[in-house]
């Protein structure tokens, strides 16, 4: 796939069932500014390159297969600085009209609940990106001095002599008498 294939802005509204019946492929990008929920979860977001093939399989399921790719920056959970991340998502979904049909899908297929003939492609792309973001981000190299890691306020270990014997007080009380 050439970089030029991703220079076309994909439409927001599509008819996925019709695209599957016609075995069409959508290739282009979804603009970053249209993905507000993803923007809230990351520091920066590039346009999302999309390659999505729509088809009908042997069991007459309408499928969407392909991949999404975006460059994002996440916040490092160690140093709180930006971490560049290449966000890549493999997509394998079946178009379903309701939750009951979604339950009947094989484990390797995720449902895309499409109740009407028209669907919001940007919302679908946004959901897929959010589901595939790493839960915790950090730099591969040590971005802060390991000596600075806190292990809580652990008391220093006392030597055998320094530890107080609980029976010592009892012994003192008995010796007074």
Question: What is this entry, summarized?
Answer:
With 177 residues, the chain is α+β, with helices and mostly antiparallel strands. It has five helices and eight strands.
Oligomer: single chain
Low-confidence stretches: none
Count of domains: 1
Assign a percent range to the helix content.
Answer: 10-25%
Q: What form results from the Cα inertia axes?
A: elongated
User: Structural class, judged by helices and strands?
Assistant: alpha+beta
Average pLDDT rating: 87
Query: What is the makeup of the main sheet?
Result: 6 strands, mixed
Describe the structure.
The chain contains five helices and eight strands. The chain has 177 residues and is of the alpha+beta class. The strands form two sheets. Strands 2, 3, 4, 5, 6 and 7 form a six-stranded mixed beta sheet that branches. It is elongated and about 100 Å long.
Write the layout of secondary structure elements.
Blueprint: E1 13-14, H1 16-21, E2 25-30, H2 36-41, E3 44-45, E4 48-56, E5 62-75, E6 82-96, H3 99-103, E7 110-113, E8 119-120, H4 121-132, H5 166-176
Parallel strand pairs: 6-7
Antiparallel strand pairs: 1-8, 2-4, 3-5, 4-5, 5-6
């Amino acid at each position: 796939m050439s970089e030029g294939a991703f220079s076309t802005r994909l439409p927001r509204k599509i008819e996925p069932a019709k695209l599957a019946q016609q075995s069409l492929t959508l290739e282009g990008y979804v603009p970053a500014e249209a993905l507000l929920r993803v923007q809230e979860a990351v520091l920066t977001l590039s346009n999302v390159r999309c390659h999505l093939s729509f088809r009908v399989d042997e069991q007459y399921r309408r499928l969407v297969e392909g991949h999404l790719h975006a460059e994002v920056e996440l916040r490092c959970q160690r140093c709180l600085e930006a971490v560049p991340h290449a966000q890549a998502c493999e997509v394998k979904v079946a178009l379903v009209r309701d939750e009951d049909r979604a339950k009947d899908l094989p484990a390797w297929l995720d449902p895309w609940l499409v109740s009407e003939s028209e669907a919001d492609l940007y919302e679908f792309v946004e959901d897929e990106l959010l589901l595939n973001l790493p839960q915790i981000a950090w730099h591969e190299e040590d971005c802060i001095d390991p000596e600075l890691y806190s292990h809580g306020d652990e008391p220093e270990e006392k030597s055998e002599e320094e530890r107080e014997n609980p029976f010592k007080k009892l012994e003192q009380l008995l010796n007074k008498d």
